[in-house]
TrEMBL record:
Localization per record: Cell membrane
Region annotation Disordered: where it falls in the sequence: 26-60
Similarity comment text for this entry: Belongs to the bacterial solute-binding protein 1 family.
Record's signal peptide: 1-17
Species of origin: Paenibacillus pinisoli
Organism phylogeny: Bacteria, Bacillati, Bacillota, Bacilli, Bacillales
Superkingdom of the source species: Bacteria
GO biological process assignments: maltodextrin transmembrane transport; maltose transport
Low complexity bias: start-end ranges: 29-49
InterPro entries reported in the protein's UniProt record: Maltose/Cyclodextrin-bd, SBP
One of the Pfam families matching this protein, by short name: SBP_bac_8
Protein name per UniProt: Maltodextrin-binding protein
Amino acid sequence: MKKWFVMTLIVALFVVAACGNGNKGGNEGNTSTNTPGNTATNTPSNNAGGEEDGEEITPEPGAKLLVWESKEERPFVEAIAKEFTEKYGIEVKFEELGAADQVGKLISDGPAGLGADVVLFPHDNLGKAVSAGLVLPNDFYEEQSRAENSELAINAVSYDGVLYGYPRSVETYALFYNKALIPEAPKTFEEVVEFAKTYNDPKANKFALMWEVGNFYFNYPFISTGGYVYGDNGQNKDDIGLNNEGAVKGLEFYGSLKNILPMNSGDVTYDIKKGLFMGGTLALDINGPWTIKEYKDAGIDFGVAPLPSINGQPASSFSGIKAWYVNSFSEYPNAARLFARYASTKEAQLKDFEITGALPANKDAAADPSVQSDEIVKGFLQQFEQSTPMPSIPEMGNVWSPIAAAFSDVWNSGKNAKDALDNAVQQIKDANNGAAAQ
C-alpha cells in the first residue's frame, strides 16, 4: 500500500472550502468552472506532480461515491468496489445504467448534483460529454494511464489533446471461423473468394462469409485501406477521408463481394448470420466478442483471427474503448479520481477479464498468460492492435446515415463507388457546417 501524505494544511483548506460552498454539486477543496458548453476544470488541491512523484491523492473527508455501470458489469464493479472500500474506507454504491445511456443522463442529472461521481461509457460519447462540461480531465494519474495502457486506448479517451478517461477495456470485431468447415482462418480476402467458389450453395444456405453488410461499423475495413473518416486521429471535422482514392478502391472491392454473398444488404442481419453459423452452414462470420458465449453454448468448434487483408493491405476495424470518467459536478472529485484509478489498474483489468471476459486496455494485462492463453481472446487483441478507434467528436453523428447509404447503393444497385462516396461526403460536410450534430 502506498503511503498517504495527508498534511494538516490540506485538511484545513478542505474544511474552509467546504464551509464556504453551499452548492451540493460543488467540489470541496477545489476550484471548478461548471458552465454548460465549456470543459469543467477541477484541479486536486494536492496535485503537485501526481502519483509519479510518490504522492497519493487525498480524498475529501467523509467522501462516499456513486458509480454507474451496466448490468453485465455489475459482478466486477461490486468486487472492485468492495476492495476499494476495504483499502480506503470510502463507501461505494452501484447504480445500474447502460454505458450508452450515461452521457445523456449526466447532462440532466450532473448539474443538479444527482449524477454518479464515477461513470463509464464508450469513448465515442466523449466529445459530447466534454462539450457539455460533464467530465474532469484525468490529471493526477495522467502519466500512469499513458504509460500503462495501449496508445490506441489513450488516444480514444482523449479529446482535443486532453486525457479524460481511465481506460478499462477494449472492444472490436474479428473473423470467426468454423474449424469443421475451414480449418485455418484465411489471411486475405482473395482466399475467402477462392474458398467461396467451392463452398457456396445459396439454396442450401451455405455461405463462405457473412457480416452486417449494411452497417458502416462493420464496413469500415473497406474504407481503412487508404481512407479514413476524420483526420487528426478522428478529431478534425474539416478533414474527411471517406472519398479519397484508397476509400474508393476499398468500396469497389466491397461491391465485388456480392458475387460470393448474393443477398441484399438489408437481408444480412445479425440474427440471420448468427443462426447460420450456429447451424453449421456459415463458415466465416465477422462479429464481436459479444457472440462468443452463444457460439460456445451451441457447441461450435470455432476460432477467432484478425480480419483478412483487403487489396493487399491490413484491414483495420472500428474499435471502442470503455473508460471510467469523473463527473465534473461530483461533491468528492478526489475520491472519485482515486476510485477511477484503482478500478483501472492492471490488477483491476485482469479481474474484470476473469469475471466478465472484458478485453484489457492495459498493455501488461493484455500480455498476461491468463489472457494470451485464450486463443479466442488473443485473436480479438491481435485485431485490436490494427483497429481504429471510432471518432469521438460530435460530428461523427453526421457520418453514419450518408455513408451507410453509399455502401447500400453500391451493393444493391451497383452505383459507381466514387459517385456514391462523393455524394455522402457532401452530405456530411453540409451537416457539419450547418446545424450542430445531435
